Amino acid sequence: MSEPPFPTPRTRTHCPYCALQCGTLLHGDRETGVRVRPADFPVNRGKLCQKGWTAPDVLTAADRLTRPLSRGPDGRLTGTSWDTALDTVAERIRALRARHGPDTVAVFGGGGLTNEKAYLLGKFARLALGTSQIDYNGRFCMSSAATAGNEAFGVDRGLPFPVADLRDARTVLLAGANVAETMPPLLQHLDRAELIVIDPRRTATAHRATLHLQPVPGTDLALALGLLHIAVVDGLLDQDYIRRRTHGFEEAARRAMAWWPERVESVTGVPARDQRAAVRLLARPRNAYVLTGRGVEQHSQGTDTAAGFINLALALGLPGSGRGGYGCLTGQGNGQGGREHGQKADQLPGYRSLTDPAARAHVAGVWGVAPDDLPGPGRSAYELLDALGADHGPRALLVFGSNPAVSAPHAAHVTERLASLELLVVADFVPSETARMADVVLPVTQWAEEEGTLTSLEGRVLRRRAVIPPPAQARSDLRVLRDLAVRLGQPPDRYPSDPREVFEELRAASRGGRADYSGITYERLDAGECLHWPCPDTEERHPGTPRLFLDRFAHPDGKARFAAVDHRGPAEDISSAYPLHGTTGRVLAHYQSGAQTRRVAELSAAVPEPFIEVHPDTAARSGVVDRGLARVTSPRGSMTARVRLDPTMRPDTLFAPFHFPGDGRANLFTHPALDPRSGMPGFKVSAVRLEPVSEGAPGGRRPARSPTASREWEAPPPDAPGESPGTSGTSASTRHAESPLPGPLSGLLPGPLSGLLLGLPPGLLFGLPPGLLFGLPPGPFLGPFLGLPPGPLPGLPPGPLSGLLLGLPPGPLLGLPPGPLSGPLPGPPPDPLLGPPPGPLPAPPSGRTTPLPAQALDAMPEVTP
Ligand code: SF4
């Protein structure tokens, strides 16, 4: 069935979700509904994923917020006027500030806010509130890669090259990135490359890979060090590049020398031969790229881990070479622009530092205040949430474009902190779990109802355009900030509410900064110019900078920096009480906390509830069954969901998606230990146990309850009759493995081998202490790095040695012939549900955790705009 002809006029804009920012064409009105088509835009080339196709449904969500709500003395949220709502907020902020000082009011922003909103939010916090307490949910996504990128290259732009450059890649290493589910149209650019995927799960992306390295969660840095080690020992370095374009190689390499392949294998579980194969693929002539994602970044050592992969890319001479590079796959819709313009705790617009006197003077000048009027840096996101309602913490919080009750780590604790506030104000367009806890809820516009700009993962500034007016009383966030600022005594002209005016001011504030937007205008963007920052305002129109680092890196001497990093384990190790690694992530059908996508009927039908993905053997040992309810418990709390068996999972690991609320919140078990430099929590690895739950037991019910037990929510009546959240698109059922399948270890447990896969300490794992394991003193191993001839270990083939050490016949674990454990894990059988679905919408059958990317992409209809 083909779509009817797309009528004109069409509005050219971009998908509201992820940082790929696929180009779209919108048509329609509020009465007949908005329809979307993919545009022939360079990143998506006429394709959209399931979320993009169904994005208009959020515009008409049944519980769309259409008027301000205020919590009354009876504890219920009920409708009120804008004046009453804003007067109430301003009055309570004034009273709290008078009693406790300006830092008693905090602000929490979002990586989905437009550049204009992010900019004005930072200005509002620092001038109208005078608070240092502002941060945003991008701290949970991008901060470690950003910190590592700034330190290595002198600037942080997710991809310092256009996405389309990937089409010329011969090899792409995806470290902790599952693009087949998070941004499927990107796969078009990877179809000529051989993929190396690093992921503890055999994801849809890993299924496409030439090589899947499946490390123990939390050991990615050891693997990165091992890959650098191999590049050194095997003579694969680009010595000329290292000498001309970098500093710090010697110390970085010296640390990597302690991570020879067999040691890396013992820590990560990745076979030494696969490590060697990965480096050989990357070091081949022609283009190679190293790309990191949240899987390796969301750790308490995430900055060092990202730096470890940057070291590898630098050692191979890739960044800025014009024949490959390093990049970070930014996640949120405006994850790039949102981290550049001042909503971060330590930052001013233009990616300037709040502690730099020159930066403070420049921005204060643009804002018409004295530099000393600007507060200093505040707490990072989790630290801020953790301090809410505490003795010296904020007593009021204003939330824009975020849902921390679901998305923050240690979610039960964060929910308690939110509940302890004297004032919680949430600006959103749907009643998210955080909005349901608020004292005042402010209904704001969303993507197709507003103008603005966003900056994609490749640093390209894009126009967002309105196609329909907002419903009823919804207002833009810019107007909300202005109206509040004026009530707090600020001059009205300091807070323009027109996005174009705000952007003009942002241009001036960013002028001369790392992220210089001063040469970018709405007029140039509307004329179709492709503008990547930095784009300074020069006499001759600056063309923008699609490719960074071709001549020099952004450090004053033009050279990149290797980082001297070393592996350290996760903040929490497994134990007898918590014997599994719990990890979290996304599925194709949902986005972030799910506040939007859970309101789209087609997406909700595809993945209607949370799940726990485990290996059949792990399930059997834990007493849980396929589709049965189970509880995942860490020292911080428990989540409950149904079990999905997946024989490709590591038996020492379980996975849960983080898009769901209530008892199904994966973040109930995640760890809030922070990376010391980026403030990134260690979302990706927690020590957990798995146990069955009977359907009638506490926590054993579905759907999950809201985390707002102490605050009641009364859904406001629909603003316009006939609005419906549903679509008539293809629905699909959730896929489950039919029955526990015998896994590669089924016949071997329990025993010493089980220790290996359960991630027990090395002694148990191999039955030998580390010294015996490697059998040799450290000297010879380090020979190549210490200027000595290669020692016996590097010179020996890994199979027999490792086999002997493990007391196993050669092969199974470390040997070269694929054995039950060493070879690539078997993929699941072909699934009849995975064929291209009928109908106009590409509707992959479920939130994918098993292979399908090729088919999913093929199912995207081609559209000629
Ligand atoms: S990949 Fe999907 S969610 Fe991301 S921008 Fe494209 S259509 Fe939207």
What is the straight-line distance between the termini? 18 Å
Instruction: Kindly report the spatial arrangement of strands forming the biggest sheet.
Output: 5-4-18-17-16-6-7
Radius of gyration: 26 Å
- DSSP helix fraction: 25-40%
> How many individual β-strands?
27
Average per-residue pLDDT, rounded, comes to: 83
Q: Which outline best applies?
A: globular
Low-pLDDT stretches are 701-865
- Strand content is 5-15%
Structural class: alpha/beta
Number of helices: 29
Q: Give the cofactors and ligands.
A: iron/sulfur cluster
Main beta sheet strand tally, sense and closure:
7 strands, mixed
Pfam family, one: Molybdop_Fe4S4
Region (Disordered): 691-746, 815-865
Organism: Streptomyces graminofaciens
Biased composition (Pro residues): 815-845
Structure description:
This protein has a 7-stranded mixed sheet with strand order 5-4-18-17-16-6-7, with helices on one face. Helix content is 27%, strand content 14%. The protein has 29 helices and 27 strands. It is of the alpha/beta class. α3 crosses α19. β14 (347-348) and β15 form a beta hairpin. The model is unreliable at 701-865 (pLDDT under 50). It starts with 10 loop residues before the first strand and ends in a 7-residue tail after the last helix. The structure holds iron/sulfur cluster (SF4). The site of iron/sulfur cluster (SF4) has 14 residues, from α1.
